Amino acid sequence: MFVDSHCHLDFPELAQDLPNILNSMEQNRVGHALVVAVSKPEWDRILELVAPHDELYASVGVHPDYKDTPEPTVEELLQAAQSPKVVAIGETGLDYYRGSEPFDWQRERFRVHIRASRECGLPLIIHTRSAAQDTLRIMAEEGAGEPGGVMHCFTESWEVAQAALALNFYISFSGIVTFRNAIELQEVARRVPLERLLIETDAPFLAPVPYRGKRNDPSKVRHVAEKIADLRGISVAEVEERTTANFFDLFSKAATARSA
User: Fold this and answer.
1) By the 8 A CB rule, do 246 and 235 touch?
2) Phi and psi of 132, rounded to 5°?
3) How far is CA 216 from CA 5, 9, 205, in A?
4) How far apart are CA 223 and CA 236, in angstroms?
5) In the 8-state DSSP scheme, what is residue 121?
6) 3-class secondary-structure state, position 229
7) For residue 226, which of 214, 244, 213, 208 has the smallest C-alpha distance?
8) Residue 162 host element (H or E)
9) Please, which pLDDT band fits residue 259 given cuts at 50, 70 and 90?
């Protein structure tokens, strides 16, 4: 069984096709998926979407790309985290790719998420783009290693991966690792310890080869696993088994719900 550790099934193009997506997941042996929030107004919608489905979990957070959106407080994150379906805080982090300084609002938002994560004990889902050093600095300053978490859709260097691993974080690879020009990222995928590796789709974005450029969904996460297996010279079954175990080790609240 594969697990998609990061997707956005609440986005309209996926939510309206959810029955077909769930069926495709089953056919491709994708047993679970984590539906990740990007803004506060959608938290209730995500919880409504995942509630009827044992195979779906949720997170709560506000993406760093969303500037003109309600800011979450620590208290609001903690309240939302009480839902039995919420297994993580995020996605959160820093993204300097668009816009320019001052990014103080991003950095403060990131700190709020880390503080909530530490208080409730749920792991963090971290997004970083063109901001790796500030991301790592704030993680260290705020004690993000205490709850731990995952660097989602990782596209940074091996040095950044090492620093995140040292802070008690997992590294998650998306369909980008299957792209022919992703040479440096593929080398990182070879080197990350198997016991700290996750796979994801980030659906509806970043569909893996051979679906690049098309709509993505969690059923396609197996292609990420297949590429990583090829890069590391191991079986797909080993990647499948290890990344699924890693998912439930990190998101322990999901493991509790699964065994209930």
Assistant:
1) no
2) -60, -45
3) 14, 10, 6
4) 10
5) -
6) helix
7) 208
8) helix 158-166
9) low
What letters, b where the CB count within 10 A reaches 16 and e where it falls short, cover 190-229?
A: eebeeebbbbbbbbbebbbeeeeeeebbbbbbbbbbbbbb
Question: Residue 90: helix, strand or coil by DSSP?
Answer: strand
Distance between CA atoms of residues 207 and 195, nearest Å: 24
Beta strands in 130-166 (DSSP E): 149-151
The pLDDT tens digits of the residues spanning 107-148 come to: 999 999 999 999 999 999 999 999 999 999 999 999 999 999
Taken in order of first residue, the domains within the chain and their CATH numbers are: 2-259 (3.20.20.140)
DSSP strand E in the chain: where?
A: 2-7, 30-35, 56-60, 86-95, 124-129, 149-151, 169-173, 197-199
CA distance 187 to 120: 35
Q: Cβ contacts of residue 190 below 8 Å, gap of 6+? A: 231, 232
Q: What b/e string do you get for 77-109 counting C-beta neighbours within 10 Å, with b at 16 or more?
A: bbebbebebbbbbbbbbbbbeeeeeebeebbeb
What DSSP designation does 193 have?
A: -
Give the confidence band of 195 by pLDDT, cuts at 50, 70, 90.
very high
Instruction: Check residue 129 and report its DSSP letter.
Output: E
